[in-house]
Design a protein that fits this description.
Blueprint (H helix, E strand, L loop, with lengths): L19 H8 L8 E4 L15 H4 L8 H14 L3 E4 L11 H10 L3 E6 L6 H10 L2 E5 L5 H8 L4 H21 L3 H4 L8 E8 L7 H11 L3 E6 L9 H15 L7 E5 L17 E2 L4 E3 L8 H4 E4 L5 H5 L2 H8 L3 H4 L5 H14 L9
Parallel strand pairs: 1-2, 1-8, 2-3, 3-4, 4-5, 5-6, 6-7
Antiparallel strand pairs: 8-9, 9-10
Length: 361
C-alpha cells in the first residue's frame, strides 16, 4: 500500500505552483490579475512595536481608507479576477471603523479574506463574525510573559490578548459543535477560520519562543509561525542567533496532531529581479498601490498609482506599473525575508526551467 505525506501548512513557497498560469503570463511579458490584494484599511495603530516598518504610516494624516471608495475598489478587484484579500497594516486593521461591513462586502463579492492583527481589540461579537467569514485570522504572538510583551508591543495588553484569543477559539468551538463537527472538516471556507499566531523573533524575545508555542497550543490555536525580525538594531546575530536556533527546535517540539509549528531563522536568498510581485500587490490606507508588501524603504520606486485618482484596472495595466515592475532592485528586495524569495527559486526551477514538466500529469 502506497502512502504520501501531505503538507497542510497554510504558509510556504510550494503555494507558488498554484500560480502556474500567472507565472507563465508574466514571463511572456503580460500582466495577470493578482491572486491576492493586500489592503491596509488603517494607518492608526494601538501598539508601538519594536522593529515595526510602518511607524511612519502611523503618523500619516490618512488614517483610514474611505469606506465608499473601498466598496468600489472591492468590486473592481472582484471583476479583475482577484481571489483573496489580505487585510493587514499599515496600522491595526481592527481599528478601521467599518471593518465588519467591509469584510461582509468582500464576502458578498466572492472574495476570500484573511486578517493579520495584534488581537487586542477582538470582542465576543466580532469573534463570532470573524471565524465564520475569514479564511484565516493570524495574530501577533511575540512573547510568553507580560514583561516581554510590553517590551515588544509597547503596551500592557498580554492578559487581554490571551483572553481575546480564548474568546475567539471558544466562539469557533461553539459554532463547530452546532454544525455537528463539520466545521472542522470544512475549516477555512464555507466553514470556520483557521486561527494562527506569528512570532517575530528578535534579541528581545528569542528566549520565550518555546514557551509561547506551548501557550498557543494550550489556547487552542491551529499553528505558530516564527521568523526573524530583519533590518533592526534588535535583529539576531552571532551567538544569540545560534542560541535562538536551539530555542526554535524546542518550539518545533510543541507541535502535535492538532497544532503546527513552523518557521526558520535563515535569511532568505534573492536570485534576481523579482518576477512574482504581480501576484500580491498592496493598497495602503492613503489609497496608494505598490508592487508588493515590502515597499516602505522604497515607496516612490514601488508606487504605481492611487485609487482615488484611477480605478484598480487602470492602475494595474498602466505604463507606470510595467516600468516599476521592470526596474525593481534585487538588492533592496534582500533587506527583508520576503516569502517570494523561496517561491522564486521553486518557480524558476519548476516553471521557468520546466524541470517538473508541468504540462504533463
Amino acid at each position: 500500500m502506497t502512502s504520501i505525506w501531505i503538507d497542510n501548512v497554510p504558509i510556504g513557497a510550494m503555494k507558488i505552483l498554484s500560480c502556474y498560469r500567472e507565472v507563465q503570463q508574466i514571463l511572456a511579458g503580460g500582466m495577470p490579475a493578482p491572486r491576492t490584494m493586500e489592503l491596509h484599511l488603517s494607518n492608526a495603530c494601538n501598539h508601538a512595536c519594536v522593529g515595526c516598518h510602518s511607524r511612519r504610516q502611523h503618523r500619516s494624516r490618512h488614517k483610514f481608507l474611505d469606506f465608499d471608495r473601498l466598496k468600489e475598489i472591492i468590486s473592481e478587484m472582484a471583476e479583475l479576477g482577484i481571489e483573496g484579500v489580505e487585510i493587514s497594516g499599515g496600522g491595526e486593521p481592527l481599528m478601521y471603523p467599518h471593518v465588519i461591513p467591509a469584510i461582509a462586502f468582500m464576502r458578498s463579492k466572492g472574495l476570500k479574506v484573511g486578517i493579520f492583527s495584534n488581537g487586542t481589540l477582538l470582542t465576543k461579537e466580532m469573534s463570532e463574525f470573524l471565524v465564520q467569514n475569514l479564511l484565516f485570522l493570524r495574530i501577533a504572538f511575540d512573547a510568553s510573559t507580560p514583561g516581554t510583551y510590553r517590551k515588544i508591543h509597547g503596551k500592557d495588553m498580554f492578559d487581554r490578548l490571551h483572553e481575546n484569543l480564548r474568546t475567539v477559539v471558544e466562539a469557533r468551538s461553539r459554532l463547530r459543535d452546532a454544525d455537528g463537527g463539520n466545521g472542522e472538516q470544512r475549516q477555512g471556507w464555507n466553514g470556520l477560520s483557521t486561527i494562527g499566531a506569528k512570532y517575530l523573533v528578535s534579541e528581545k524575545n528569542w528566549r520565550e519562543l518555546g514557551p509561547a508555542a506551548s501557550m498557543a497550543r494550550e489556547i487552542g490555536l491551529d499553528y505558530l509561525q516564527f521568523k526573524c525580525l530583519r533590518n533592526s538594531k534588535f535583529t539576531l546575530k552571532g551567538e544569540l542567533l545560534e542560541q535562538a536556533r536551539e530555542e526554535g527546535v524546542r518550539a518545533l517540539r510543541e507541535a502535535d496532531a492538532g497544532f503546527q509549528v513552523f518557521g526558520s531563522f535563515n535569511k532568505t536568498r534573492v536570485i534576481g529581479r523579482c518576477f512574482l510581485n504581480p501576484i500580491h500587490p498592496v493598497i495602503d490606507a492613503a489609497g496608494d498601490m505598490y508592487l508588493c508588501a515590502f515597499y516602505h524603504h522604497r515607496e516612490e520606486e514601488h508606487k504605481i498609482g492611487n485609487i482615488y485618482q484611477k480605478s484598480v484596472p487602470e492602475i494595474w495595466y498602466s505604463k507606470r506599473h510595467f516600468q516599476a515592475f521592470n526596474s525593481s532592485d534585487p538588492k533592496k528586495c534582500a533587506i527583508y525575508d520576503c516569502p517570494f524569495h523561496e517561491a522564486a527559486i521553486l518557480a524558476r526551477s519548476w516553471i521557468v526551467d520546466n524541470k517538473k514538466h508541468l504540462e504533463f500529469v
